[in-house]
């Protein structure tokens, strides 16, 4: 079998060629020691003193989630100077790559950030586009900021007590995720050590009711919730059984508590609770592991389950455990592990939504390294169980939604552009009939507008150039794990892809490639400009035979990248630099090192002399889209005479019409030149011939029908016409 | 039904082995007397068509299995007396697993009971600080009630040898008080009350009653040694909270077991020696003995009114409850209800209506209706005998009765080695003359010679009729032999169906007597202690050290796995050392031990608990004190060095 290493060795020269002088990223996909996330002595494996200046010694990992304390040595006395935390101990918020940026964070005893260090990231954009130093610069904005402050990406708004951070252009998702990582990690630890006080929520009051809901009723109204974790979610091999199948619910609510525990059981439990304490139950109806684990035996802490309410988390000690003797509700399932946990932390309120969190260990298949993975399920008492119903709750938007809201205007404009182009193309019959061989402006007005907007707005401004890397990501997502958040995090790309998938199957890939691809548009625009500037005599097409051979190259590139991606996504992403998109739009020709600039510039320069050289021979994205185009619904029209007549083929800039007159829809850019000809009675040879015959015979020129012929003067009987259509 | 011959087989004596056997053997030896007793009963018509013993197939089980998969928990706590091991034992049921033993009257080196200063203070010491008693014989244990069922606060247990009653807190399963009852011997029966006789607001246990079996001279100070006629037994009431003796009642005859009514008005004890004989043949001479009912409200009023005496050094008021002093029912403190000879066991039915006395030497059970007893006290009932609503034959040697809450009673037949299931209302109808009433429902052979039995929640209003445990006094061939001393055989019976079904045998070290089976949700245990509960707690490792006051030395230590706070401590030969150890580990189940070699000291400290020991440092040298209770991977390294200087 091809090992990853072998493949890397084989591909290394190619990669080296591409990356010759690319600034080598320090922390991109670096291999971290597994002890970093597992050893109690975090600081033996991480540069803790770099993020907590002044600290000379560090404690072992403590707390849940864990952190370490840093100490200064004052003449033999240890003085605590602050805390160091590893972001992945606390949160696994993914960045643009779908993987977390492993960050070491220092915070002093007052809750101010003292240092941030990226230990590992998987962001391709930082690898080959934006220098990693920009992320370092971004992170430095946190230094000295208080963890309890409201820190967001964007402009500061003092009137809202909001501290703004400068984003990194072109890496919005990365920095939004990074901000969440910083603030979540900081608050988690600050709360544990008492820097931040828990939020005090008003307590719920429960209406009195005689209802005795069954288990099914309780499940239906959400009073009992279900949390399932599959072995695959943890990187384990599954056999169809769940890894963890838990049901849980809130017991203080009298109707629910009595239904679940019985009258006596409820009274007995409530007699144990003090003011402000809350009880929940958990049962495991199936699963491969214990939800209690064994941590509570050694340290007294249940390390696999916790309750979260907003930013407050509530963990359970052995003393917070009470036996669940049984479930009284009719229809309750059999279970093999059970618990009642008592939430004693201040601030929990059953009136507001909370989550049960199962803390699992995800095992990386390749390295067997363990990273922690959280699975949660929300719980919120239904209106009927709360006096006055549910209080109003404003939930913070998830990252992707925040992006969509921020870019609403841009998204709107983009959708208008896409719909406009689609509408124009849908009306292509009308446009091409009104155009002629000599004057194609009726078509080109729309197409050129599309090009200009694609280049300027979509490409340079919105940086929404689709890329083969997205196709690879899709393949992987379909095969391994589908994360909507990942795809939603870039709204324009997300919308663009929906548009591309739909139009490829309706009309073929040409609508995207020929009308809307920013790089393709730029490339052909340059060709047109070249022609307009009098460079026509230098412009050329490759001979058809050579073209036919070279056009297969892009498929090879696509499959090559796909194959590499299964061994290493990172390497595939590096090799995807064969697309000059990043250099052209995302980073800028002048901002990259010379091999990239030379490559992209060269391709663009060549475009002046030959039409779309990259699209025709190299573009893996085009190849990926060309294949499904085989199954497009509406093709371009052809006449019987097209088999002999070469008129269209001569004018086809894409060299997509073969000697038999067939259009290769996979190569066609839908420029519509041949369709203009199709109805042009001065340009289409069969039409011109008929026009001349009628002129001679003194017959009138009837309108041209949908099949590109003059309507016959003596219409054939309806039946035979039908037959003809069928023939 | 057994024939006369098999009776004699059953009665073949094994000399001097067990108290009960002695009784039976004596009965056998008494031959003629017993025969008379039995034949007199046999004259009554036996119940019609009683099913053949042991022939019945098993009834449909309620589906619960006594076998628990790993991790599963029992549904009931079983609270067992330990007998002459002097302890209380806690079992899980239906599995029968022994979960813990609670040391009560006798020293226990595991926890340091009788070794630590705190436990010695509870157990009672002589002037030199040594324990007053080191043997005991626990028979009966009963738990506190609220609203007619267990409330999980306390259980009480008796010591028959030294006449003591102890209380065990059911939140920690530890003994917290022991009271020695004055002027009694052979303290046997014990039962908490279930409500206050006067104040209807008090629906929980506030008194515990204790019956004394052996009559003695009052006071027992060396005078009247041979005036057997003046020997007396006292019935005692102890305060459930303070554990002080509230009052005693002087009676005719003796006390055996005790029962209390659900309304708190009545307590009763069965008497097997109304004859007040000092020798067994005298004790068996009368055809009828009695079940004696005490009118609690009247007794307490008499005490209030100053109508009492005291005996010897005891300040406890003793009321006169003899027949002679209580002839007028309307003022009587006591009612003597005649029951057939030498009865054993009195049990209150869960419907709160009846007390049932088992016959022992009579093959009958006597059902006494409590309402009628109260009528007698009110002067509404002419003849006290009319309180007996049934006296029916069950088999040979009936001893104790349990209930299923569905109107059935289960009575052990010692001599027949059976449990008989019978219907109380049917028995009453039969006794009233309906000879078609079939009161015996089922019989089950048990192995062998059962004494006490009890059913799940039996003596509460919540008797649930699921499980029955039978304490068989003989195991004979039922377990791997371990020499001449055999374990006893606790048998588990499924009583959820019409027929009883024997489910399991469990060996128990001799010798539990009585027990109760309590639903697990009635008991709320604590997980760890609170530092503040102990006035001598060492709350911070920094408080550790050796503190000297003359030759009295206090060593303060804390334990935190895997270390004691002092690596060593030094005392001088001749010092009186008090060592205080607080376990500062907060994690549940993280208990440490502390042993001092050659000083005969070991005890444990549970999380956040403090204990102390006092000893004379009389042996110079180095003594490695170590943790005896497994605590940590470095458990073996958990030590401290006691240096005793010359």
TrEMBL record, chain A:
GO terms for molecular function: DNA binding; FMN binding; iron-sulfur cluster binding; metal ion binding. It holds the Pfam family Fer4_5. One of its GO terms (biological process) is positive regulation of DNA-templated transcription. One of its GO terms (cellular component) is plasma membrane. It is found in: Cell membrane. PROSITE patterns: 4FE4S_FER_1, 4FE4S_FER_2. The keyword Metal-binding applies. The chain crosses the membrane at residues 408-427, 448-472, 492-517, 555-573, 593-610. SMART domains: FMN_bind (SM00900). Its main location: membrane. Residues 633-662 form the 4Fe-4S ferredoxin-type domain. Residues 1-25 form the signal peptide. This is Regulatory protein NosR.
Automatic annotation (TrEMBL), chain B:
Its main location: periplasm. GO terms for biological process: denitrification pathway. GO terms for cellular component: membrane; periplasmic space. Residues 550-646 form the Cytochrome oxidase subunit II copper A binding domain. It comes from the Bacteria. Keywords: Calcium, Copper, Metal-binding, Oxidoreductase, Periplasm, Signal. Its EC number is 1.7.2.4. Pathway: Nitrogen metabolism; nitrate reduction (denitrification); dinitrogen from nitrate: step 4/4. The keyword Calcium applies. It is found in: Periplasm. It catalyses: N2 + 2 Fe(III)-[cytochrome c] + H2O = nitrous oxide + 2 Fe(II)-[cytochrome c] + 2 H(+). InterPro entries: CcO_II-like_C, Cupredoxin, EfeO_Cupredoxin, N2O_reductase_N, N2OR_C, NO_Rdtase, Nos_propeller, NOS_propeller_2. The keyword Protease does not apply. Its cofactor is Ca(2+); Cu cation. Pfam families: Cupredoxin_1 (PF13473), nos_propeller (PF18764), nos_propeller_2 (PF18793). One of its GO terms (molecular function) is copper ion binding. It is an enzyme of class 1 (oxidoreductase). In the C-terminal section; belongs to the cytochrome c oxidase subunit 2 family. Belongs to the NosZ family. Nitrous-oxide reductase is part of a bacterial respiratory system which is activated under anaerobic conditions in the presence of nitrate or nitrous oxide. Homodimer. This is Nitrous-oxide reductase.
